[in-house]
Amino acid sequence: MRPTGNVDPAELAKFSQLAHRWWDQEGEFRPLHQINPLRLDWIDGLVPLKGLQVVDIGCGGGILTDAMARKGAQVLGVDLASKSLRVAQLHALEAQTPRVQYREIGAEALAAELPGHFDVVTCMEMLEHVPDPESVVRACAALVKPGGWVFFSTINRNPKSFLYAIVGAEYVLNLLPRGTHAYKKLIRPAELAGFARSNGLELRHARGMGYNPLNRRYALTRDTSVNYLLATQKAP
Prior knowledge:
Number of strands: 8
Number of helices: 8
Shape: globular
CATH architecture: 3-Layer(aba) Sandwich
CATH class: Alpha Beta
Structural class: alpha/beta
Strand content: 25-35%
CATH superfamily: Vaccinia Virus protein VP39
Largest sheet: 8 strands, mixed
Oligomer: single chain
Strand order of the largest sheet: 3-2-1-4-5-8-6-7
Number of domains: 1
Helix content: 25-40%
């Protein structure tokens, strides 16, 4: 059965073809493994995860989901890519990761089922892959408890981001498979912050993420012109 709703079948197919490579740290998802400690520590520094109820929207193979569970959170990872979820579940079994579950369900459907259920919602590197990103932001806002936090990360839309995140990352440095990102689907920080505010989430913190091709390292910065993260909070 093909997933319906706020989903691009071509995007699901793209990630399904690579599903078996999610936990290969030298493969196509190497950048996610490299940035994961940065985004995990940033989230945990703002909202200590231990003991919290967390949902990871668009979890893929579970790289961030698994790490948050190991920080002590009770984590649910959700995605619509069946093969990626099976990889995530298998990894959790093999690694004996505690306090983690996975479900094949969309953000909007989960929000209708569990409104106001989670202390923290994460939606990382996902919004640029769906037809209606504001619908996902609305679902994230519905899922979080009053006073809870929602974290987003995505890619800015401007000439620099096209040069760095698409031409550079996909065609020159081969950090990502070609065709991973479509420029027209990228989202400016002001647009994402607007989606958040319209759905009861206030922007609290923003960070950029940069890559140094010389030492092949990523770092959090104040420059949000290419990759960026936003921390938002729902009113108590």
